[in-house]
Amino acid sequence: MTDSKPTKWAIAQYWANTPDEDGRKIFAPHLGLEDPCCFTCGWYSERWKEGRSARRAWERARLERAHIIPAGLGGSDKVDNIILMCTPCHEESPDWFSPWEMAIWISKRADRPSAELEQVNDWIAAINDVPQFREMLGEMATREDGTEVVLAAMRRSLAGAVVHGAGVGLRRSTMTAIARRTVQEVRGAPYLPPFPVSRARCSIPLQQEAGE
């Protein structure tokens, strides 16, 4: 089936060349043509560009084409009715017959940091969810090989995770599981938080490394 929507690059170019009084400031307040980002919250990833041309970076960007007036309510697939949003913005934006509601929603939308900074913040939050991880780091700081031991354990713990969806990255809940599993391996003892059901069904023994 042929995609009738304009390309991301064409959308970015259209809105970049649209005067503020004709809608750019309303529907694309964060738009800068050289650096791909969500029009409404400014979210971006440093990996999208990485030496690519602006056109290729926009096409690579993990942004979704969103109708201002939904297609189901008569909105067209023309470039003047489509803006680029990150997935959370697209999912939470209003599906309404008038552009006015979309404009109001965008004006109140909170900014998001870059994908990379969000990952850092998620790791910090995940580690805070597992205070035993911080305790373990303090213990390992006294060992000459402490950093290598912790990093090796984290790499092995990553083998128990999977990224849910292309380009999404690790979720905070998965990071928390990695931190918990790392504590378990480094300390050589299972650690599970209080749980309202039998742990027997949830306990998985540590996998032995090859050759052990």
Describe the structure.
With 212 residues, the protein is mainly α. It has nine helices and two strands, in the order H-H-H-E-E-H-H-H-H-H-H. It has helices spanning 8-16, 24-27, 54-60, 87-92, 99-108, 115-129, 131-140, 146-158, 172-187, and strands at residues 64-67, 82-85. A two-stranded antiparallel ribbon has the order 1-2. Helix 6 (115-129) crosses helix 9 (172-187) and helix 8 (146-158) crosses helix 9 (172-187). The longest helix has 16 residues, at 172-187. The chain is elongated. It starts with 7 loop residues before the first helix and ends in a 25-residue tail after the last helix.
Enumerate the strands of the largest sheet in spatial order, edge to edge or round the barrel.
1-2
Class of secondary structure makeup:
mainly alpha
Give the fraction of residues assigned to helices.
Answer: 40-55%
Number of helices: 9
**Radius of gyration using CA atoms only:** 23 Å
Average pLDDT: 87
How far do the termini sit from each other? 53 Å
Uncertain runs: 206-212
Total strand segments: 2
Largest sheet: 2 strands, antiparallel
The amount of beta strand, in percent, is under 5%
From N to C, what is the helix and strand string? Answer: HHHEEHHHHHH
Q: What is the general shape?
A: elongated
